[in-house]
Amino acid sequence: MSREAEKKPTSQSRVRVRYAETDQMGVVYHANYLVWFEIGRVDFIRSLGMDYRTMEQEDGLAIAVVEVSARYKSPARYDDELRIETRLKAARGAVIKFGYQVKREADDILLCEGETVHVVVNREMKSRSLPEKYANRFAQVLHLKD
Prior knowledge:
Blueprint: H1 3-7, E1 10-16, H2 32-47, H3 52-57, E2 61-72, E3 81-92, E4 95-104, E5 110-122, H4 132-142
Antiparallel strand pairs: 1-3, 2-5, 3-4, 4-5
């Protein structure tokens, strides 16, 4: 991660690994990280004073995932407490990017890092620009430093 990205505001979410999230090898099944990315993203948006429910119900928009990347660094295991650090990487027109780091709380080891790319869509799943009130808030975040 670049020094500039490290300065951008982040939100932190915590989850504890459930037994059902592990595989036969006793480690977290890889797809669970995508669920945790979503938890982080929802919490990040909430930390900005916004929420998905309002976006969907009142503004008639959704933020569709169009691309996901994840790099697995170290395994998480049953009952580990994890910290999901989420930050906004970009927001322009209809495209929004979020970055994630999942760390084990006990030792601060980076377990996984990733990114999701989203396209803002209307109820008919047609691409649309992010409404001004959200675009302005995201722009503020992108220009802030810790």
